[in-house]
Structures are given as structure tokens and as C-alpha cells.
Design a protein that fits this description.
Number of domains: 1
CATH superfamily: Glucose Permease (Domain IIA)
Radius of gyration: 14 Å
CATH topology: Glucose Permease (Domain IIA)
Strand order of the largest sheet: 9-5-6-7-11-3-2-13
Oligomer: single chain
CATH architecture: Distorted Sandwich
Helix content: under 10%
């Protein structure tokens, strides 16, 4: 079982609350989303594992059970070309859950006309594989968002 932690503090809103149909309809995979607090901070690794993909706006960490978790910082933030983001780790790094991966500023993301909502997705999982999915209410950074069995 994999415990997936919130990469940011804010309010859990569920994938249906993401203003992007690819995430909202769980086409990438099941999971949830967090509307982050509006303050510069660091997004953390949601699980212990290896960073297999790392962009300023998104990253994937794969744990020892081969569960890949995507953290997408904001919607259409790839169009910001890294502005408002700073990498704190490198692709291929081993990280512990809770370690900082990307520094970012949700206020700058919003000022650039993008939503700062963060999708946290279980890649290649079927919906039945997730339990205890947080879809509403406040979450602290590091709060369990769901478990993957």
C-alpha cells in the first residue's frame, strides 16, 4: 500500500474541481487535487521513491511498488516556461516523502493568468485501487491525500 501525501498546503477539491477536462475526467488517472494556499513555497515529494520525470511545473515520483504519482503544479503552467518555479531536485534523484522537489509561487501563477490548482494523480491505476481519497476540506502539506493498494 502506498500513502500519497499532499505536496502543498491548501484545500482538497477532488479531480472534478480541476479546470482542465483531462484531469477532471481522470483521463491521466485517478487521484485528487488541492487548491493551494496563496504563498510562495516548496512542493514536496508525495511518496518515497525515484523522480522519473521532472519539469518546473510537474513531476512524477515512482515508489518501490512501481506506483507512479504525478504532481502537476497548476493548470497549463507549462506555458509559463518555468517562470515562477525553481527545481530543488533532479530527474533520477531518490527522495523521501516530504522532501522538497520544486519551489513555486501560486500567486505568480495566478498573476500570469493560470490556475494554481495542483492535481495529484495515480498514474496507470484504476479507480478502485485508491482508498480514503480526500476530495474536500483543508489539508496541510504532507497530509495523506489517498492510499493506493
Amino acid at each position: 500500500m502506498t500513502r500519497v501525501l499532499s505536496p502543498v498546503a491548501g484545500r482538497a477539491i477532488g479531480l472534478a474541481g480541476v479546470p482542465d477536462p483531462v484531469f477532471a475526467q481522470a483521463m491521466v488517472g485517478p487521484g485528487t487535487a488541492v487548491d493551494p494556499v496563496r504563498a510562495a513555497g516548496r512542493a514536496i515529494a508525495p511518496v518515497t521513491g525515484r523522480i522519473v520525470k521532472l519539469h518546473p511545473h510537474a513531476y512524477v515520483v515512482v515508489d518501490d511498488e512501481d506506483h507512479g504519482v504525478l504532481v502537476h503544479l497548476g493548470i497549463e503552467t507549462v506555458k509559463l516556461k518555468g517562470r515562477g518555479f525553481a527545481l530543488l531536485a533532479a530527474e533520477g534523484d531518490e527522495v523521501n516523502a516530504g522532501e522538497p522537489v520544486v519551489a513555486w509561487d501560486p500567486v505568480a501563477v495566478e498573476a500570469a493568468g493560470r490556475s494554481p490548482i495542483c492535481a495529484v494523480v495515480a498514474l496507470d491505476a484504476d479507480g478502485g485501487a485508491l482508498t480514503r481519497v480526500r476530495a474536500d476540506g483543508p489539508v496541510h502539506q504532507g497530509t495523506e491525500l489517498f492510499t493506493w493498494v
